[in-house]
């Protein structure tokens, strides 16, 4: 099955409402296509695919000496020092916490070992949010949840990267949207990427879909606040598969794309290695089924800065040491530094990690490797 066939079959088989995908080798783009409700240049909510871009921005700051990987984050964003470890939530909603035993660092934030969590996957954070009432989206209130463990103790997928974005803002002296535009999007020619959906992007914005009772999909009017209190570096960017491929090609090119260097080769090498030591990823148990399904990880899965790194070869696909992650509306990417290939595959469908969507992404990845 060729690459275009995998997209058509994903839509014709009723697995996704639409899909757009693209792939490249070190020599350049080898495929770009779409099917169903998406076009190759559709503007999509990339959600947690934002995290790697925020990580790149933070590592630019490390290169400039604005802060170090192991600098206490509170030296840059003092508010983070208020976070304490959750002990209990009473039946009356009373919350008990204790001070953390060590400071949170940028390394903790970029590897999700800060002790923070997400209400989507952690029962305690879910209960905390329920006790406190709805937290204002895209706000400091949303980032005020307690720690679940001491920094460095365990891996917990989390709001950590939002805090890394606040570090970039504080050290860079500009809001995150402006910083990314000036230092990543403009140099990499990613004109269709931003926290705000610009006039040129608006007509191409794809709808986020949910499954309906008839086995089909219903389009929703889902859209993030276009004037947020906080630009969430963990999940608020809009982009296209083509734009995002320019970012992954830059990583594949050791920090350079089309002769423009945005990161040093040594920095990209550091970002691509296990940065969490003996800690490993733990399964994610969904607390909000409409937002995400449960997610298990390959044994030994590690985190770099800020990529997931697979410990073994995938049959017919990426090699051990490849970098990857995805976004809540079932968008995914991978970067294989051994076989020198990268791909981006996206639909706009909730909940995250939908089994049929993931299987179709796997089909696309295998079809890419079959052409090499």
Please summarize what this structure is.
With 372 residues, the chain is of the alpha+beta class. It has a single domain, classed as Beta-lactamase (3-Layer(aba) Sandwich).
Report the portion of residues in β strands.
Answer: 15-25%
Percent in helix: 25-40%
Low-confidence spans: none
Report the sheet with the most strands, covering strand number, pairing sense and barrel closure. 7 strands, antiparallel
Query: If classified by CATH, what would the architecture be?
Result: 3-Layer(aba) Sandwich
Instruction: Count up the helices.
Output: 9
User: What does the radius of gyration come to?
Assistant: 20 Å
CATH superfamily: DD-peptidase/beta-lactamase superfamily
CATH topology (level 3) name: Beta-lactamase
| Structural class based on helices, strands and sheet pairing | alpha+beta
User: Order of strands across the biggest sheet?
Assistant: 2-1-15-14-13-12-11
Structural shape = globular
Comma- or semicolon-separated keywords:
372 residues; alpha+beta; Beta-lactamase; 7-stranded antiparallel beta sheet; 17% strand
Description:
It is a single chain. This protein is of the alpha+beta class and 372 residues long. It has one domain: DD-peptidase/beta-lactamase superfamily (Beta-lactamase), CATH 3.40.710. The protein is 27% helix and 17% strand. The protein has nine helices and 16 strands. The chain has helices spanning 3-12, 50-63, 106-111, 123-132, 160-172, 176-185, 241-252, 265-271, 355-371; strands spanning 18-25, 28-36, 44-45, 84-89, 95-99, 209-211, 217-219, 238-239, 256-257, 260-261, 302-303, 308-309, 323-327, 331-336, 341-346, 349-350. Helix 1 packs antiparallel against helix 9 (355-371), helix 2 (50-63) crosses helix 5 (160-172) and helix 2 (50-63) packs across helix 6 (176-185). It starts with a helix and ends with a helix. The mean pLDDT is 97.
């Amino acid at each position: 099955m060729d690459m275009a066939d995998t997209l058509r079959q994903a839509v014709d088989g009723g697995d996704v409402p639409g899909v757009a995908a693209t792939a490249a080798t070190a020599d350049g783009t080898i495929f770009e296509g779409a099917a169903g409700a998406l076009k190759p240049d559709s503007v999509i909510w990339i959600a947690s695919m934002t995290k790697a871009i925020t990580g790149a921005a933070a590592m630019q700051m490390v290169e400039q000496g604005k802060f170090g990987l192991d600098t206490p984050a509170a030296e840059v964003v003092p508010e983070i020092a208020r976070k304490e470890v959750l002990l209990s939530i009473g039946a009356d909603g009373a919350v008990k916490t204790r001070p953390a035993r060590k400071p949170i660092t940028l390394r903790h934030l970029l590897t999700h070992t800060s002790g923070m969590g997400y209400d989507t996957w952690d029962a305690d954070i879910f209960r905390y949010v329920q006790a406190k009432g709805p937290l204002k989206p895209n706000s400091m209130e949303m980032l005020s949840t307690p720690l679940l463990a001491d920094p460095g103790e365990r891996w917990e997928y989390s709001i950590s990267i939002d805090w890394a974005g606040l570090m970039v803002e504080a050290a860079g002296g500009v809001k995150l949207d402006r910083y990314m535009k000036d230092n990543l999007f403009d140099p990499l020619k990613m004109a269709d990427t931003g926290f705000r959906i610009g006039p040129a992007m608006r007509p191409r914005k794809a709808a986020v879909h949910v499954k309906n009772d008839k086995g089909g999909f219903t389009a929703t009017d889902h859209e993030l606040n276009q004037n947020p209190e906080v630009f969430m570096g963990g999940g608020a960017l809009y982009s296209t598969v083509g734009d995002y491929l320019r970012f992954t090609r830059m990583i594949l090119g050791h920090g350079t794309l089309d002769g423009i260097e945005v990161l040093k080769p040594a920095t990209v090498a550091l970002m691509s290695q296990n940065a969490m030591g003996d800690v490993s990823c733990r399964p994610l148990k969904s607390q909000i089924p409409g937002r995400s399904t449960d997610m298990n990880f390959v044994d030994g899965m590690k985190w770099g800065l800020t990529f997931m790194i697979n410990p073994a070869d995938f049959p017919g696909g990426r090699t051990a040491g490849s970098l990857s992650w995805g976004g809540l509306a079932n968008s995914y990417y991978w970067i294989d530094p051994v076989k020198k290939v990268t791909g981006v595959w996206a639909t706009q469908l909730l909940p995250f990690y939908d089994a049929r969507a993931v299987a179709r992404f796997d089909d696309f990845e295998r079809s890419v490797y079959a052409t090499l």
